[in-house]
Amino acid sequence: MYGLIGRIRAVAGKRAELAAILVPREGGMPGCLSYVVAEDPDDADALWVTEVWVDEAAHRASLQLPQVQAAIARGRPMIAGFDRRVVTNVLGGIGLRSR
Amino acid sequence: MYGLIGRIRAVAGKRAELAAILVPREGGMPGCLSYVVAEDPDDADALWVTEVWVDEAAHRASLQLPQVQAAIARGRPMIAGFDRRVVTNVLGGIGLRSR
Fold first, then answer.
1. N or C: which end of chain A has fewer CB within 10 A?
2. Contacts of B35 in chain A (CB under 8 A)
3. Contact B35 A95 (CB under 8 A)
4. Residues B15-50: pLDDT tens digits?
């Protein structure tokens, strides 16, 4: 399984609005096993996004989905940057959607 | 919801053995909504653990569970250290177990 751990910096004051766009609804992203959006309590502009996908190809394919493209378009003006990004090899755990 | 993102360093050569202990089974940890264990592809001794709990109290309580205490006891000799730890305020997402 393909994992991503990343921190996104919102434009000042825009974190809540950006988070509302980033939090996905269940379903609709094939191969997505987990996608969690969280605030960084120590930085009022930062969000952590942790993702688990069946494989890297599933993640890449998701970026072409119409609803993801729309979310990217709406979110982009509120994103100041991506300041951490780790790719992981996910072994297992609790809360991974069944494939 | 209470989130944790952490990186654990295994004693050299012990990552796989440590990971086998850390990957939890479904059920048995009240208040645990997600618990994912992953290898860091860039560091042969590092594991990432990302967790989501109903609240901080649920996480704290889990540390007293017999099976968690047993896992800690078995894993401790294989842990060299914890080199990253971020507490987050989880907003939502995909793959969170229902409470």
1. C
2. 93-95
3. yes
4. 999 999 999 877 779 999 999 999 999 999 999 999
Q: How far apart, in whole angstroms, are the C-alpha atoms of residue A35 and residue A51?
A: 4
Instruction: Spell out which residues of chain B touch residue A83, defining contact as CB-CB under 8 Å.
Output: none
Name the residue type at position B3: G
User: In CATH, what number is assigned to the domain containing residue B67?
Assistant: 3.30.70.100
- What distance, in Å, lies between the first and last C-alpha atoms of chain A? 11
Give B31 to chain A, closest Cα distance, Å. 12
For residues B18 and B74, give the distance between their C-alpha atoms in angstroms, rounded to a whole number. 9
Stated pTM of the model = 0.94
User: A36 and B50 in contact by Cβ < 8 A?
Assistant: yes
Asked whether residue B91 is assigned to any structural domain, the reply reads no
Q: What is the pLDDT of residues B30-39, one digit of tens each?
A: 999 999 999 9
Give ipTM to 2 decimals: 0.94
Asked if A33's CB is within 8 angstroms of B95's CB, the reply is: yes
**pLDDT tens across B36-93, in order?**
999 999 999 999 999 999 999 999 999 999 999 999 999 999 999 999 999 999 999 9
Q: Residue A71: which domain range?
A: 2-89
C-alpha torsion sign, points B63, A50, B48, A2: positive
- The structural domain count of chain A equals 1
